[in-house]
Every structure is written in structure tokens, then in C-alpha cells.
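Holo prediction. Input below; ligand is 2,5-dihydroxybenzoic acid.
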Amino acid sequence: MTKAVAAEELQAGTGRSAFYAKIDTGNCAPLWEVLSDLVRPTPKTPCLPYIWHWNDVWPWIEESGTLISAAEAERRVIVLENPGLRGRSAVTHSLYAGLQLILPGEIAPAHRHTQSALRFILHGAGAYTSVGGERITMQVGDFVITPSWQFHDHGNPSDEPMVWLDGLDIPIVELFDAQFMERTDEQSQLTTHSESHHLAQFGNTMKPVGFEPRSGTSPLCWYPYERTRAALETLKSGEDPHPCWGHKLQYLNPVTGKSAMPTIGTFMQLLPAGFQGKPYRATDSTVYAVVEGSGTCTVNGEALAFGPRDVFVCPSWMPYTLDASKDAILFSFSDRPVQQALDLWRESL
Ligand code: GTQ
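Structure of the complex:
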């Protein structure tokens, strides 16, 4: 091939497809065809803004209770699948969410897995989860942690159905192919501690002398709503709300001062009635659950009107605003601690 012909071919791009086909047989591919998709000026996510209204999903949750028991299902959960990620059991690109129903008298048997889980209680009172030898009876608005590789079982000795939002790092653990899970013969674990033992140990900005953390997850597995709500009310009466997020607190591991869970950041915020938030965006796609009040989240121009027990998603880097018509209290979670640990997290406001 002469130099002149080579230059012409180069210009026209002929000969490339034959080359691609040739290297394809050896599991090789040309970067330049995909580079601009791989290394982008700003984030691109398959995750879409979406809201699950409680009134729409509650009949389906109830119906699931007539079709399968908690024992047979192991966990009777309606998975919240992001419309941009259907079939992948993902609420955002990195996290999983579902609505778990446990009926009076039921037990969801003990198991453990490397995935970490959070429970955020939406409906009912009196069901418990046992974790680390402590049986935690849950109320609406409580945030409960199931740390990685800790046995946990759930039960409902009350006389009403209970529903909570499960948030797990399933897609993150899947990315690393680091999944393990185990069952045990015992249906429910022996309880060695009273309900508020860990709260007494770690819930007062103190810790037992001699305590050394064995993992990054908070040794305090239960953050009762009563306390969180009281804190937000105090902030509301004592300071101006932040222009984007109102009064917002992050749940912490009281021993390390870091995020309560190593892979999932968890937050609770109060938007005072009449609040009209300024636009905000961050690289952590965020799942919100409404505890009280109502308002509108506008994501990329799309208005999501929310009320109690609704769950909605704000995807990575899409600007969104939060407005409240009545005092609104929102729980939220995202992969922020993972992004921060990897020097990836960014926000703009
Ligand atoms: O409660 O252990 O929503 O293992 C998904 C997987 C809940 C649980 C889910 C689980 C659990």
C-alpha cells in the first residue's frame, strides 16, 4: 500500500469495519468508537425521575398478602423498579428499594447477607426486626439498620399489617460480585438485649468505655422517629431553612462520626410550610420517602406531587427543587458515602 492510498483510506474510514470485525473475533474492540460515551462531560444515568404514590401501591401490597405468606416468600416485598431500569430490581443505578409487608402473626425467617439493608417504617406499628440479639419494635418514621452479614428476622405480634421501605445496596454488591448469603435453622433469633439497650449505649453522644467498632456500620441500629422529629422541630424554630433543602440532618455512626451505613447515606429533612426550594443537584441519585406533609418535587421540569408514604427518585445530576404546601418531613437515602469514599461525589447549588 502506498502512502497516498493509506492517507485516502484514513480519510474515508474505509477498512475500519473489516478491522473491527477481525479484532472482534479475539474479544477486542476500538475505544475511539465508544470513547465519548465512556468518558462524558457530565453524568448520564439510566435512572429516571419517578414517584410511587402510596394510594396506588397499597392495594397491590395488600393483595400480595393474600397470595403468599412471609414464610414462603422469605421476604414478601414489592420491588420498586425505576422505569429506566426495569427488570434489574433497582430503584437507582446503585441501589435497591422495596415495600415489605408483614401481617399479624407472621415471621420472616432469619438469614444474613453481605448486602446492607435499611428499613424505613411507613405504615403500622408493633412489628419488630431482630438484629444483633436486639429485638427492635418499629414505629412509623423509625430508621433501622441491618448491617452486612448480621442475622436478621422480622415478626409481627401486633394486630395490624406493617409496611416498611427496604433500601439495600444490592446493585453495588453485585457490581463487585461480592454476594454471600446464609440461612439458619432457627426461624427467629434469641433476644439477648432489651429493646433500647443499644440506644442507651450509643444514642446519647456517648459510648461504652472499652468499645471498639468491628465494622463501619453504626452499632446503633435504631434511630427512633420521635428523636429525629424533635430535633428537626427545634431547628425549625431556631434557624432559617437552607435555601435548597430546608432543615436537613444526616444519620451518623455515633462512634466514627461517618455515615450510619458505609454504603448508603441516610437523611431526614423538614421543609416548612410554604417553603420553595432553590434548584439543587448532586451526583448521588436519591430516593425520598415522605413521612408527613405534602408538596412538590420538580425534577428536570417534571412535577412530582407528594404526600405521606409516597416514594420518589431524583436521579444523578438532574436539577430539582422541593416545595412544601404543609410542613413536610422527608427521609432520603443514596450512595453518597460510597461516592465520597472514592472522591467522586459532586453537588451544585
Ligand atoms: O429483609 O432481608 O427487600 O434480604 C430484599 C432482600 C429485604 C430482608 C429485601 C432482603 C430483605
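Residues 3-38 form one domain. That is the main takeaway for now.
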